[in-house]
Amino acid sequence: MSVQLTDKAANHVNAMLAKRGHGVGLRVGTRKSGCTGFAYEVDYADEIKDKDQVFESHGVKVIVDEDSLPIIDGMTVDYVKASILHEGFEFNNPRVKDMCGCGESFSV
Q: Per-residue pLDDT tens for 13-49?
């Protein structure tokens, strides 16, 4: 089981953690949402909790809660900058079976 980052995502996370001045890595998870079932949650982690799973990817800790791991296991997180107005994390989750029309939620 694992969740990985691309080089671009890892570089972005390292830069943002340095800018913040604190943090242990990137927290990636899911929540129930939308018309299809789940949405991704991403935040910078300041701590690692007892039931978290921690993966190392390109020198960055990726922290995933135990409830989200079965939903996103095998996922790769990229960081894309398509234009001045569009940049952010992009998720390549092999477990996704369907997405809603707006792309905000997915099912597994």
A: 999 999 999 999 999 999 987 666 888 899 999 999 9
Q: Which two tokens stand for residue 50?
A: 């007892």
Q: Are 52 and 64 in contact (CB under 8 A)?
A: yes
CA distance 66 to 96: 18
What is 4-101's CATH topology?
Hypothetical Protein Aq_1857; Chain: A; (2.60.300)
pTM: 0.87
Element (H, E) at 89: strand 87-92
Residue-by-residue DSSP string for 27-69:
EEEEEEETTTEEEEEEEEES---TTEEEEEETTEEEEEETTTH
Residue 43 near residue 25, CB atoms below 8 Å: no
6 touches 78 (CB < 8 A): yes
Count CB-CB contacts under 10 A for residue 15: 11
SS3 43: strand
